[in-house]
Amino acid sequence: MVKETFKRELLSIVGKDNLWENPEDVLCYSYDATPLPPCKPDLVVRPTTEEQVGSIIALCTQEGVPLIPRGAGTNLSGGVVPVDGGVVLLTTGLNRIVEVNREDLYAVVQAGVVTARLAAEVEKLGLFYPPDPASMSVSTIGGNIMENAGGLRGLKYGVTKDYVMGVTFYDAVGERVVGGGKTVKCVTGYNLPGLMISSEGTLGVLTRAVLRLIPPPRARKAMVVVYDDLIKASETVSAIIAAHILPATLEFLDQFTIKAVVEATGVDLPTDAGALLLIEVDGHPAQVEYEYREAVSICEDSGGQVRVARSEEERDEVWLARRKALSSLARLKPTLILEDVTVPRSQIPAMMATIEEVRKKYDLLIGTFGHAGDGNLHPTILTDRRDEKETERVEKAIEELFQGALDLCGTLSGEHGIGVAKLPFLVKEVGEGTLRFMKRLKGGVDPRGIFNPHKLVAAYERGLERD
Q1: In the CATH hierarchy, which top-level class contains the domain 1-215?
Q2: Distance CA 242, CA 248 (A)
Q3: 219-407 is classed in which CATH architecture?
Q4: What is the rounded CA–CA span in Å between residue 135 and residue 133?
Q5: CB within 8 A of 42, min separation 6: which ones?
Q6: What are the boundaries of each domain within the chain?
Q7: pLDDT in tens, 325-362
Q8: Helix 312-323 / helix 255-265 crossing angle, nearest 10 deg
Q9: What's the CA gap between 211 and 246, in Å, rounded?
Q10: Of 37, 397, 450, 452, which is the most exposed, with the fewest CB atoms less than 10 Å away?
């Protein structure tokens, strides 16, 4: 519990309309989109200026109170779960698009700006911000940076880290720190933008970012490719990449997910298909036509039946179906566990085979979809955590999925982060030396350990690096 004097000082910084402490008011900040037990914070605070963030941090450091930065709370790994009380700091009050520069192709935005809002605003000016996480209609730029969010366009256009030119954040003593900037090249000092990316709020509180923008593609063409077998579909992904074709999007849906999406949305997809690939090529019109013909040829040679979107409306329906995959699956069982295993693209067929083996071995409902073009698969386990016996099988299945990905030179997480959900497995991928280095780094910039404790380096501190 925090002291009354601490509460009063916070109140003096942000005002009564931006501080919550009643149990019913803080309850919704005790969890994120991960199916984990809720952990209530002591207080929730929402600064409305960047300077207030520095004052809040300085106070928390002085009192040794944990501080958990939080955007929209769409995390899928428990990254913003408080774990042991403390103060949740909402960045949603920092929601200004400060500048959009059409000449130098960048935008300056505060951390609480919603991703889809930024994309829409720059599109009005004839510009393009490609990162498009599935949660982009609610997720914020700060959270995207902290988790290095990906999205459907990651194959061709990259992920959030590829668009971060500069950052402003506040350190553990409440000082303002600036890294990077508005220039294309910048090697002044440490790579502080890189330090913030994927740090999950453990090294500072991000308040503003400079983001790279690009010209939009001049043409695009979308298609749905129907397969009777999911392995054939996954082999096609490898063949497309091997042919040096980089679609803007190359997405995968298995049969279970297709049926769930059709049932939930009514979208016109073949429910008897073993798997679908959703492909879009974009760029210069001539390039689009060439890559489209090449992709169609590869798909047909692999046994796929190609359906081309004949209008923008059909195209939008295709991508709506993909974006609705998670919510459609969530309707089927009380508990949904969305995993994030990622492997080299040539290993997608092997990973798909592993997922199928695990599904059969543990007799579980698993729907798989994801960004097949960059090897990022989302095996989604549908269960009920009140069923203790099934929960035990689920836990074993998750461990085998993680190990399967690592055996294929993959990673535990392509875009969702480690949080608390994947913490016990972190050492299997990075090793004890890496964890010790991370601990030293964390201790150097946050000696009292106030920033989002129990995450990342906690794997070392709690001895979880040992089997």
Answers
A1: alpha beta
A2: 16
A3: 3-Layer(aba) Sandwich (3.40)
A4: 5
A5: 1, 2, 21, 26, 65, 85, 86, 87
A6: 1-215, 219-407, 423-461
A7: 999 999 999 999 999 999 999 999 999 999 999 999 99
A8: 110
A9: 23
A10: 37
